[in-house]
Amino acid sequence: MRQGTEPETGLRIASGTGKEIRANVSDNTLKAYEHATRKLESWLEGRVLNDATLAKYVRFLHSQGKSPATINLAVSAVKWMAEYHGMDAVAGAATESALSAVRHAGKRHERRQVDGLTWDDVERVCAAAESADTAAGLRDAAMISLMSDCLLRISEVVAVDVRDVNSEGLQLRRRGNDPAPRDEVLYICESTQRLIARYRQRAGVDSGALFRRIRFQNHVTEDRLGVKGGREAIQRRAAEAGVEGAISGHSLRMGSAVSLAEAGASVREVQRAGRWRDPAMPARYVREAPEEGSPVERYKDRK
Known about the structure:
- The protein folds into 2 domains: 22-105, Tyrosine recombinase, N-terminal domain (DNA polymerase, domain 1, Orthogonal Bundle), CATH 1.10.150; 119-299, Orthogonal Bundle (hpI Integrase, Chain A), CATH 1.10.443.
- The chain has a 3-stranded antiparallel beta sheet, with no helix packed on it. Strands 4-5 form a two-stranded antiparallel ribbon.
- The chain has 303 residues and is mainly alpha-helical.
- The protein has helices at residues 18-22, 27-44, 51-63, 68-84, 93-105, 119-130, 135-150, 154-157, 190-203, 227-240, 251-263, 267-274, 295-299, and strands at 165-166, 169-172, 184-186, 212-215, 219-224.
- Strand 1 and strand 2 (169-172) form a beta hairpin.
- It contains 13 helices and 5 strands.
Protein backbone atom coordinates (compact mmCIF):
# COMPACT_ATOMS: atom_id res chain seq x y z
CA MET A 1 0.00 0.00 0.00
CA ARG A 2 1.36 3.42 -0.89
CA GLN A 3 1.67 5.81 2.04
CA GLY A 4 -1.49 7.87 2.46
CA THR A 5 -3.56 5.49 0.33
CA GLU A 6 -6.53 3.68 1.86
CA PRO A 7 -6.15 -0.12 1.60
CA GLU A 8 -8.67 -1.85 -0.63
CA THR A 9 -10.07 -4.69 1.43
CA GLY A 10 -13.68 -3.55 1.26
CA LEU A 11 -14.03 -4.19 5.00
CA ARG A 12 -15.71 -0.91 5.85
CA ILE A 13 -18.99 -0.08 7.56
CA ALA A 14 -21.00 2.50 5.66
CA SER A 15 -21.79 5.66 7.59
CA GLY A 16 -25.35 5.99 8.85
CA THR A 17 -25.92 2.27 9.31
CA GLY A 18 -25.34 2.15 13.06
CA LYS A 19 -28.97 1.49 13.98
CA GLU A 20 -29.29 -1.28 11.41
CA ILE A 21 -26.30 -3.26 12.62
CA ARG A 22 -26.91 -2.75 16.36
CA ALA A 23 -29.72 -5.25 16.18
CA ASN A 24 -27.18 -8.03 15.69
CA VAL A 25 -23.88 -6.67 17.01
CA SER A 26 -23.27 -4.82 20.27
CA ASP A 27 -21.45 -1.50 20.45
CA ASN A 28 -18.37 -3.00 22.07
CA THR A 29 -18.19 -5.89 19.61
CA LEU A 30 -18.55 -3.50 16.67
CA LYS A 31 -15.77 -1.26 17.98
CA ALA A 32 -13.53 -4.28 18.48
CA TYR A 33 -14.27 -5.52 14.94
CA GLU A 34 -13.52 -2.12 13.44
CA HIS A 35 -10.26 -1.87 15.37
CA ALA A 36 -9.22 -5.38 14.32
CA THR A 37 -9.93 -4.76 10.62
CA ARG A 38 -8.01 -1.48 10.66
CA LYS A 39 -5.00 -3.39 11.99
CA LEU A 40 -5.43 -6.00 9.26
CA GLU A 41 -5.70 -3.37 6.52
CA SER A 42 -2.48 -1.74 7.70
CA TRP A 43 -0.70 -5.10 7.61
CA LEU A 44 -2.03 -6.02 4.15
CA GLU A 45 -0.46 -2.95 2.51
CA GLY A 46 -2.76 -3.25 -0.50
CA ARG A 47 -2.51 -7.02 -0.91
CA VAL A 48 -5.64 -9.01 -1.74
CA LEU A 49 -7.45 -10.41 1.26
CA ASN A 50 -8.18 -14.11 0.82
CA ASP A 51 -7.86 -17.34 2.78
CA ALA A 52 -4.11 -17.57 2.22
CA THR A 53 -3.31 -14.01 3.29
CA LEU A 54 -5.64 -14.24 6.29
CA ALA A 55 -3.88 -17.44 7.39
CA LYS A 56 -0.56 -15.64 7.03
CA TYR A 57 -1.91 -12.79 9.15
CA VAL A 58 -2.95 -15.27 11.84
CA ARG A 59 0.62 -16.61 11.94
CA PHE A 60 1.98 -13.06 12.00
CA LEU A 61 -0.17 -12.13 15.02
CA HIS A 62 0.98 -15.27 16.80
CA SER A 63 4.63 -14.40 16.09
CA GLN A 64 4.00 -10.99 17.66
CA GLY A 65 2.87 -12.64 20.89
CA LYS A 66 -0.83 -11.93 20.49
CA SER A 67 -3.14 -14.15 22.51
CA PRO A 68 -5.38 -16.80 20.89
CA ALA A 69 -8.42 -14.73 21.94
CA THR A 70 -7.09 -11.65 20.15
CA ILE A 71 -6.31 -13.68 17.02
CA ASN A 72 -9.74 -15.33 17.05
CA LEU A 73 -11.31 -11.88 17.37
CA ALA A 74 -9.43 -10.70 14.26
CA VAL A 75 -10.73 -13.65 12.23
CA SER A 76 -14.26 -13.21 13.60
CA ALA A 77 -14.11 -9.55 12.55
CA VAL A 78 -13.20 -10.53 8.99
CA LYS A 79 -15.99 -13.10 8.84
CA TRP A 80 -18.58 -10.64 10.13
CA MET A 81 -17.41 -7.81 7.86
CA ALA A 82 -17.48 -10.10 4.83
CA GLU A 83 -21.03 -11.17 5.67
CA TYR A 84 -22.06 -7.56 6.26
CA HIS A 85 -20.81 -6.59 2.79
CA GLY A 86 -22.24 -9.69 1.09
CA MET A 87 -18.76 -10.91 0.13
CA ASP A 88 -17.71 -14.50 -0.42
CA ALA A 89 -16.30 -16.26 2.64
CA VAL A 90 -12.69 -15.23 3.22
CA ALA A 91 -11.70 -17.55 6.06
CA GLY A 92 -11.27 -21.10 4.77
CA ALA A 93 -9.19 -24.20 5.35
CA ALA A 94 -5.87 -22.37 5.46
CA THR A 95 -7.11 -19.92 8.08
CA GLU A 96 -8.64 -22.70 10.19
CA SER A 97 -5.38 -24.64 10.02
CA ALA A 98 -3.43 -21.60 11.20
CA LEU A 99 -5.90 -21.02 14.04
CA SER A 100 -5.62 -24.65 15.07
CA ALA A 101 -1.84 -24.32 15.28
CA VAL A 102 -2.21 -21.22 17.44
CA ARG A 103 -4.57 -23.01 19.82
CA HIS A 104 -2.19 -25.94 20.18
CA ALA A 105 0.69 -23.56 20.89
CA GLY A 106 -1.19 -22.57 24.03
CA LYS A 107 0.46 -20.08 26.30
CA ARG A 108 4.04 -20.26 25.05
CA HIS A 109 4.13 -16.53 24.37
CA GLU A 110 4.28 -14.00 27.20
CA ARG A 111 1.50 -11.47 27.45
CA ARG A 112 1.94 -7.91 28.58
CA GLN A 113 1.59 -7.09 32.24
CA VAL A 114 -1.35 -4.83 32.98
CA ASP A 115 -2.23 -2.97 36.16
CA GLY A 116 -5.18 -1.00 34.82
CA LEU A 117 -7.84 -1.76 32.24
CA THR A 118 -7.98 1.30 29.97
CA TRP A 119 -10.95 2.21 27.79
CA ASP A 120 -9.42 0.35 24.84
CA ASP A 121 -8.88 -2.71 27.04
CA VAL A 122 -12.49 -2.52 28.25
CA GLU A 123 -13.82 -2.53 24.68
CA ARG A 124 -11.85 -5.73 23.96
CA VAL A 125 -12.83 -7.40 27.23
CA CYS A 126 -16.53 -6.58 26.87
CA ALA A 127 -16.58 -7.71 23.23
CA ALA A 128 -15.08 -11.06 24.23
CA ALA A 129 -17.56 -11.47 27.11
CA GLU A 130 -20.56 -10.59 24.93
CA SER A 131 -19.45 -12.99 22.20
CA ALA A 132 -20.28 -15.89 24.54
CA ASP A 133 -23.95 -14.93 24.00
CA THR A 134 -24.95 -15.95 27.53
CA ALA A 135 -26.52 -14.21 30.51
CA ALA A 136 -23.19 -14.54 32.36
CA GLY A 137 -21.31 -12.98 29.46
CA LEU A 138 -23.71 -10.04 29.29
CA ARG A 139 -23.62 -9.63 33.07
CA ASP A 140 -19.84 -9.46 33.13
CA ALA A 141 -19.68 -7.09 30.15
CA ALA A 142 -22.28 -4.78 31.72
CA MET A 143 -20.52 -4.85 35.09
CA ILE A 144 -17.09 -4.15 33.60
CA SER A 145 -18.42 -1.36 31.40
CA LEU A 146 -20.23 0.27 34.34
CA MET A 147 -17.11 0.09 36.51
CA SER A 148 -15.09 1.73 33.74
CA ASP A 149 -17.61 4.57 33.23
CA CYS A 150 -18.06 5.35 36.93
CA LEU A 151 -14.57 4.45 38.22
CA LEU A 152 -16.20 2.05 40.67
CA ARG A 153 -14.56 -0.13 43.26
CA ILE A 154 -15.52 -3.81 43.15
CA SER A 155 -17.38 -3.43 46.45
CA GLU A 156 -19.40 -0.58 44.94
CA VAL A 157 -20.43 -2.31 41.73
CA VAL A 158 -21.67 -5.50 43.39
CA ALA A 159 -23.80 -3.36 45.73
CA VAL A 160 -25.66 -1.69 42.83
CA ASP A 161 -29.40 -2.35 42.69
CA VAL A 162 -31.64 -2.11 39.63
CA ARG A 163 -33.25 1.05 41.04
CA ASP A 164 -29.82 2.75 41.20
CA VAL A 165 -29.47 2.90 37.40
CA ASN A 166 -31.69 5.20 35.36
CA SER A 167 -31.52 7.68 32.49
CA GLU A 168 -29.78 10.20 34.77
CA GLY A 169 -26.93 7.82 35.55
CA LEU A 170 -25.88 5.72 38.55
CA GLN A 171 -27.05 6.79 41.99
CA LEU A 172 -24.19 5.87 44.27
CA ARG A 173 -25.80 5.25 47.63
CA ARG A 174 -24.04 5.95 50.88
CA ARG A 175 -23.12 2.72 52.66
CA GLY A 176 -21.58 2.27 56.08
CA ASN A 177 -18.97 4.96 56.83
CA ASP A 178 -18.68 6.04 53.18
CA PRO A 179 -18.41 9.87 53.22
CA ALA A 180 -19.83 10.20 49.67
CA PRO A 181 -23.08 12.23 49.37
CA ARG A 182 -26.21 10.13 49.53
CA ASP A 183 -27.59 11.68 46.32
CA GLU A 184 -24.40 11.49 44.22
CA VAL A 185 -25.19 10.57 40.58
CA LEU A 186 -22.44 9.32 38.27
CA TYR A 187 -22.53 9.56 34.49
CA ILE A 188 -23.05 6.34 32.47
CA CYS A 189 -22.15 6.20 28.77
CA GLU A 190 -25.00 5.48 26.37
CA SER A 191 -23.38 2.24 25.17
CA THR A 192 -23.22 1.02 28.79
CA GLN A 193 -26.88 1.91 29.35
CA ARG A 194 -27.81 -0.24 26.33
CA LEU A 195 -25.59 -3.07 27.53
CA ILE A 196 -27.19 -3.06 30.99
CA ALA A 197 -30.64 -3.13 29.36
CA ARG A 198 -29.64 -6.14 27.22
CA TYR A 199 -28.30 -7.97 30.27
CA ARG A 200 -31.41 -7.27 32.33
CA GLN A 201 -33.68 -8.49 29.54
CA ARG A 202 -31.64 -11.63 28.97
CA ALA A 203 -31.32 -12.43 32.68
CA GLY A 204 -34.85 -11.36 33.65
CA VAL A 205 -33.60 -8.96 36.32
CA ASP A 206 -36.36 -6.48 37.17
CA SER A 207 -35.60 -5.46 40.75
CA GLY A 208 -33.22 -6.03 43.62
CA ALA A 209 -29.54 -6.73 43.00
CA LEU A 210 -28.45 -5.78 39.48
CA PHE A 211 -25.54 -8.18 39.21
CA ARG A 212 -26.54 -11.71 40.30
CA ARG A 213 -24.83 -15.02 40.82
CA ILE A 214 -25.37 -17.27 37.81
CA ARG A 215 -25.29 -21.02 38.33
CA PHE A 216 -24.77 -23.98 36.02
CA GLN A 217 -26.51 -23.83 32.64
CA ASN A 218 -26.95 -20.07 32.91
CA HIS A 219 -29.43 -20.17 35.79
CA VAL A 220 -29.73 -16.62 37.15
CA THR A 221 -30.31 -16.65 40.91
CA GLU A 222 -31.72 -14.02 43.26
CA ASP A 223 -28.38 -13.84 45.09
CA ARG A 224 -26.18 -10.78 44.74
CA LEU A 225 -22.80 -11.34 43.10
CA GLY A 226 -20.10 -11.10 45.78
CA VAL A 227 -16.80 -9.22 45.77
CA LYS A 228 -14.84 -12.42 45.19
CA GLY A 229 -17.12 -13.51 42.34
CA GLY A 230 -16.97 -10.07 40.74
CA ARG A 231 -13.17 -9.97 40.92
CA GLU A 232 -12.89 -13.45 39.43
CA ALA A 233 -15.26 -12.50 36.60
CA ILE A 234 -13.10 -9.50 35.70
CA GLN A 235 -9.92 -11.56 35.74
CA ARG A 236 -11.49 -14.36 33.68
CA ARG A 237 -12.92 -12.02 31.04
CA ALA A 238 -9.64 -10.11 30.77
CA ALA A 239 -7.74 -13.37 30.25
CA GLU A 240 -10.22 -14.48 27.58
CA ALA A 241 -9.63 -11.20 25.74
CA GLY A 242 -5.86 -11.66 25.91
CA VAL A 243 -5.31 -8.99 28.57
CA GLU A 244 -3.45 -10.67 31.40
CA GLY A 245 -1.22 -9.63 34.25
CA ALA A 246 -1.93 -7.80 37.50
CA ILE A 247 -5.70 -7.62 37.02
CA SER A 248 -7.86 -7.06 40.09
CA GLY A 249 -11.10 -5.42 41.13
CA HIS A 250 -9.22 -2.10 41.17
CA SER A 251 -8.00 -2.37 37.57
CA LEU A 252 -11.03 -0.65 36.01
CA ARG A 253 -10.88 2.31 38.37
CA MET A 254 -7.17 2.74 37.73
CA GLY A 255 -7.47 2.20 33.98
CA SER A 256 -10.21 4.82 33.59
CA ALA A 257 -8.08 7.32 35.52
CA VAL A 258 -5.21 6.65 33.10
CA SER A 259 -7.53 6.99 30.08
CA LEU A 260 -8.95 10.27 31.36
CA ALA A 261 -5.43 11.60 31.87
CA GLU A 262 -4.37 10.51 28.39
CA ALA A 263 -7.46 12.29 26.97
CA GLY A 264 -6.39 15.53 28.65
CA ALA A 265 -8.44 15.61 31.87
CA SER A 266 -7.12 17.72 34.74
CA VAL A 267 -6.22 16.51 38.21
CA ARG A 268 -9.41 18.02 39.59
CA GLU A 269 -11.55 16.35 36.90
CA VAL A 270 -10.09 12.91 37.53
CA GLN A 271 -10.32 13.42 41.28
CA ARG A 272 -14.01 14.28 40.88
CA ALA A 273 -14.71 11.36 38.52
CA GLY A 274 -13.05 8.89 40.89
CA ARG A 275 -14.32 10.58 44.08
CA TRP A 276 -10.84 10.72 45.58
CA ARG A 277 -10.56 12.96 48.66
CA ASP A 278 -6.80 13.36 48.21
CA PRO A 279 -5.62 14.74 44.82
CA ALA A 280 -2.29 12.92 45.20
CA MET A 281 -3.68 9.72 43.62
CA PRO A 282 -5.12 11.21 40.40
CA ALA A 283 -2.11 13.53 40.17
CA ARG A 284 -0.03 10.48 39.27
CA TYR A 285 -1.80 10.24 35.92
CA VAL A 286 -2.94 13.74 34.99
CA ARG A 287 -1.86 16.98 33.31
CA GLU A 288 -3.90 20.14 33.56
CA ALA A 289 -6.95 20.54 31.24
CA PRO A 290 -10.43 22.21 31.18
CA GLU A 291 -12.89 21.23 33.89
CA GLU A 292 -16.45 21.91 32.64
CA GLY A 293 -19.06 19.12 32.57
CA SER A 294 -18.68 15.42 33.33
CA PRO A 295 -15.15 14.25 32.43
CA VAL A 296 -16.33 10.73 31.57
CA GLU A 297 -19.12 12.14 29.39
CA ARG A 298 -16.76 14.49 27.57
CA TYR A 299 -13.70 12.29 27.19
CA LYS A 300 -15.09 8.75 26.95
CA ASP A 301 -18.50 9.24 25.38
CA ARG A 302 -17.21 11.96 23.02
CA LYS A 303 -19.85 14.52 23.99
